[in-house]
Amino acid sequence: MISVRVQTEAFDPGVELAALEELGGGGVASFTGIVRGDGDLVELLLEHHAAMTGAAMETIAAEAAGRWPLLGLTLIHRVGALTPGERIVFVGTAARHRGAALEACAFLIDWLKTAAPFWKRERFANGTSRWVEARAEDAEAAARWR
Amino acid sequence: MISVRVQTEAFDPGVELAALEELGGGGVASFTGIVRGDGDLVELLLEHHAAMTGAAMETIAAEAAGRWPLLGLTLIHRVGALTPGERIVFVGTAARHRGAALEACAFLIDWLKTAAPFWKRERFANGTSRWVEARAEDAEAAARWR
Amino acid sequence: MAIDILYFAWVRERIGLDGESVTPPDDVVDVAALIDWLATSSDAHATALADRARIRAAVDQRFATPDTSIVGAREVALFPPVTGG
Amino acid sequence: MAIDILYFAWVRERIGLDGESVTPPDDVVDVAALIDWLATSSDAHATALADRARIRAAVDQRFATPDTSIVGAREVALFPPVTGG
């Protein structure tokens, strides 16, 4: 089971985990990314290359499925306007054993950060806004899987 | 927030994740262990050293909290009789950034497997039963964090 | 041949366009040459594309490098390094 | 001094006891010596504790090694390698 979704709507990690738990594996791992309200952030705007995003996420999912013996994986990325505390991204993996589930989960979020066409713009309480800069650590985190 | 629980009752990963998401971090990671129904398993019996288990889990939690900048962590381990598909164990971590949450989550489940006094007995459809043997891989997985 | 150029994030904002259809000269055969050529279109293009090290591209919706060929491509997207997740 | 001995998993089953209170001789000062001494208690003890490499211990509810002292200990638990998680 590979489920990849790009959506403006909220999602429920509990529901996503339950679907992964149904697959008969012994381990389900997840990562949920949440909008932090640092520095009076009032809104995070997620832009993406809509025609390309789904395929890019499918490519990342297929890479994980090829590397680890997964029973299932779920990738959800939200787009549009989000406020602090809202969930942005969800990665869930199911496998017979925990190692594959945990490693694939870490791989998937590292790669989602660097290999899918999303851009974040932050808007602050004082009216200013700025595009989030890519972090060198994210490129390094993704590179360790090569 | 450190929450450590040993219980016979079921738990809800969605509820546990929601509590971790409330802590203001940007990342929440989880691992849920589930009883696999391999080889006609009908029941898994979890025995533990009841007077010691809580303290052992607190020690493991404190070790993780000392190594990674966590905003919160939750450890739940069930005891008693479980059937295939039921959740046995839950590890959840919250941190500002994903790296700490993901690494601490993997550390916690590796250590729970080797540094908490639980023993599993499997009962099969044909009436036989056996104690689960400790796996060398589990000791190795725990050792990589030393 | 006409190519659809798409812009995202601050590249889009600085150029002031979501995209445009262009027909580059025949000697513009790769991503790097295309960016050089687009940068001559207007002051806004020049400014938006000035810092080549911070411009990334996708050719026909696959991530590309400066030397990726654009010959026969229908779409080239230009954008800053991605920041999803 | 009396020490509470607790048994878990197949150690418990093979000995046929959850635990017992024992008073080892004064020269039994560590976990390894305690196991050797307990193994002389009965055939069931001898059988349950025969494979020393598969016996683990906790002294006063902390994991211990064969050379961990039991002097002054109130409780020693003996069990197979743990299999939780």
From TrEMBL, chains A, B:
Its EC number is 2.8.1.12. InterPro entries: MoaE_sf (IPR036563), Mopterin_biosynth_MoaE (IPR003448). It catalyses: 2 [molybdopterin-synthase sulfur-carrier protein]-C-terminal-Gly-aminoethanethioate + cyclic pyranopterin phosphate + H2O = molybdopterin + 2 [molybdopterin-synthase sulfur-carrier protein]-C-terminal Gly-Gly + 2 H(+). SUPFAM superfamilies: Molybdopterin synthase subunit MoaE. Pathway: Cofactor biosynthesis; molybdopterin biosynthesis. It comes from the Bacteria. Gene3D superfamilies: Molybdopterin biosynthesis MoaE subunit. Coiled coil: none annotated. Keywords: Molybdenum cofactor biosynthesis. CDD domains: MoaE. Belongs to the MoaE family. Heterotetramer of 2 MoaD subunits and 2 MoaE subunits. Also stable as homodimer. The enzyme changes between these two forms during catalysis. Converts molybdopterin precursor Z into molybdopterin. This requires the incorporation of two sulfur atoms into precursor Z to generate a dithiolene group. The sulfur is provided by MoaD. This is Molybdopterin synthase catalytic subunit. It comes from Sphingomonas natans. The lineage of its organism: Bacteria, Pseudomonadati, Pseudomonadota, Alphaproteobacteria, Sphingomonadales.
UniProtKB/TrEMBL annotation, chains C, D:
It comes from the Bacteria. This is Molybdopterin converting factor subunit 1. The lineage of its organism: Bacteria, Pseudomonadati, Pseudomonadota, Alphaproteobacteria, Sphingomonadales. It comes from Sphingomonas natans. InterPro entries: Beta-grasp_dom_sf, Mopterin_synth/thiamin_S_b, ThiS/MoaD-like.
